[in-house]
Design goal:
The structure is a single chain. The protein is of the alpha/beta class. It contains 10 helices and 8 strands. Helix content is 48%, strand content 15%. An 8-stranded mixed sheet has the order 7-5-6-4-1-2-3-8, sandwiched between helices. α1 links the parallel β1 (7-15) and β2 (40-48). The longest helix is centred in the C-terminal third of the chain and has 33 residues, at 268-300. The radius of gyration is 25 Å and the shape is elongated.
Amino acid sequence: MESNLKRCLSYVIPCYCSAKTISSVVDEIDLTMRKMSSHFDYEIVLVNDGSPDNTDVIISNLARAKKYITSVNLARNFGQHAALMAGLKQTRGDIVVCLDDDGQTPADEVNKLIDKLDEGYDVVYASYPNKQHSTFRNLGSRLNGKMLVSMLNKPKDLYVSSYFVARRYVIDEMLRYENCYPYIMGLVLRTTKRICNVPVNHRDRKEGESGYSLGKLLNLWLNGFTSFSIKPLRMALYFGMVSAVLGFLFLVYIVINYFLNRGTPLGWSSTTAIILIMSGVILVVLGLIGEYVGRIFMCTNSTPQYVVREVIKGNDKDE
């Protein structure tokens, strides 16, 4: 017998410079949920990640106007993943839906992800057969995917995007991570392996441009492999061992060559090249170790994931 109890969906949307788009995203969610009202209640959590425009005013007004909307204004820009963690903290739903603020991720296709979740998966990511991002952003996504495979053991056939649904227990487990530098994909991958994809449409961006610059993408990848993997340290160890073996073999070659070809001068250029190469290797390894140690220091120093300036929950009356 099918239960008459409605499940609750929690939508979490990190917002950055989305004053012109977030209202239409909320409207699309409202329209979609009216069609699904017999099965679900819902709430929407909007997180302003230190936007320089008036996004904070827009989402605050939405929260005051609609009882099921919560607006969270962060004290400064902490990044998309920290903003997501701040939003997840406010949710109460049985299923959590994370999507973008620019309208490119189709909220009206959320039922496809939920149906797949009901097949026994814990997390379902949207995949895009025809992705509408810029060439630079697509390249960044591909590099990020390869990094996840090599560093975090992501299945090669799994596409990871910012549009996904997850069960409550997965979200609760993710929220146990309280250190700085959160990385959503790493938190998901270390929680469950029951993850899959569902293809959905990907729309053109209507306003503005992606907030991910090259620097932000590099910082995101750095967060991923230094916060949730020690493989870079192991790679540095193996690289150092290989370099030492090659250096020893080269030394043997120089000695043998000297005795076989007596009087052959030892080349200063090859010596200089070896010194430069080994010095570069040492500096890279030291820098990598320093990055890990620095992050350990930041965590022990209780550096926050995010700082909330204001939370406004929807009013107690109907629209």
